[in-house]
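Fill in residues.
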């Protein structure tokens, strides 16, 4: 005699089957979908830069972000203290050395923890409100102020909005998490040895970036603990070709950042047969122009004094 399953058992099995289907569907939706033109050279050039950041290869990022001759000139400018590219592509890059110095100070873990306890510990409501206000202000600023291209304005506005959303949910006032963060960031800052501008000059661009890599790794790990896994952002970044015309191209970029999906376009320029982000080239050229003026812009030498005629 065959036993027939009861109605309740059938309902459980149906619910279980539906759950498995939904889980599979969710997993499938999370898998990055390639964009049209993903195999093109311009699209691949953008993904390569993201891959360097995912693998913590700051030296490789700087090497592939600009042509070799520009890279060499940027290193000369770095050693002269006239450039900090590619660090200047980061927000608040002028605060990096002071931050490294503060974290490297003796007993920084205890000192900074006490400062955190006084100012921010358990102030979650105030911190979230500050994050919301700064996010709104930042979006409005990049949309109308500053020296940005339209592509940069569109991109940065999305990024700031995503970071604002994240900051409002992140446990920024958690004392235990702050203590863990300081316990990991401070030793990494000390190991870099880059606590003065002169130290950066002496090391040069490539060596400085190499010495900053352990701190970069810890900074990413910190953001992950606070709910912002940047390695996921870099790994899931997708690119596709919108247009390629001669030595210029437009590439679409799509990537997750916090709870948002960033979708924007960037321009690329081909130099020496390789593709580079046009904004990176522009920023590098601006740095070099300020650091090393063209010969025709240099002041003329003073006229030589006439020597008296011999008697």
């Amino acid at each position: 005699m065959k036993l027939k399953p009861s109605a309740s058992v059938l309902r459980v099995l149906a619910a279980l089957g539906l759950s498995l289907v939904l889980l599979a569907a969710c997993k499938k939706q999370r898998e990055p979908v390639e964009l049209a033109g993903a195999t093109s050279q311009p699209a691949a050039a953008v993904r390569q830069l993201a891959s360097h950041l995912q693998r913590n290869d700051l030296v490789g990022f700087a090497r592939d972000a600009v042509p070799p001759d520009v890279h060499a000139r940027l290193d000369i400018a770095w050693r002269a203290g006239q450039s900090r590219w590619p660090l200047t592509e980061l927000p608040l890059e002028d605060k990096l050395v002071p931050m490294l110095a503060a974290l490297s100070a003796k007993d920084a873990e205890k000192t900074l923890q006490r400062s955190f306890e006084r100012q921010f510990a358990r102030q979650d409501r105030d911190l979230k409100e500050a994050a919301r206000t700064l996010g709104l202000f930042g979006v409005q600023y990049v949309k109308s102020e500053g020296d940005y291209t339209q592509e940069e304005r569109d991109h940065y506005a999305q990024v700031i909005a995503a970071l604002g959303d994240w900051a409002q949910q992140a446990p920024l006032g958690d004392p235990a998490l702050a203590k863990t963060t300081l316990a990991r960031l401070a030793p990494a800052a000390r190991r870099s040895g880059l606590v003065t501008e002169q130290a950066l000059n002496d090391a040069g661009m490539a060596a400085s970036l190499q010495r900053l890599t352990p701190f970069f790794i810890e900074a990413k790990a910190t953001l992950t603990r606070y709910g912002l896994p940047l390695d996921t952002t870099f790994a899931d970044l997708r690119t596709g070709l919108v247009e390629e015309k001669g030595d210029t191209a437009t590439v679409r970029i799509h990537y997750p950042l916090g709870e948002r999906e960033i979708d924007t376009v960037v321009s690329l320029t081909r130099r020496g047969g390789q593709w580079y982000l046009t904004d990176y080239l522009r920023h590098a050229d601006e740095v070099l122009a300020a650091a090393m003026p063209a010969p025709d812009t240099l002041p003329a030498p003073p006229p030589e004094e006439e020597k008296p005629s011999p008697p």
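Residues 34-290 form one domain.
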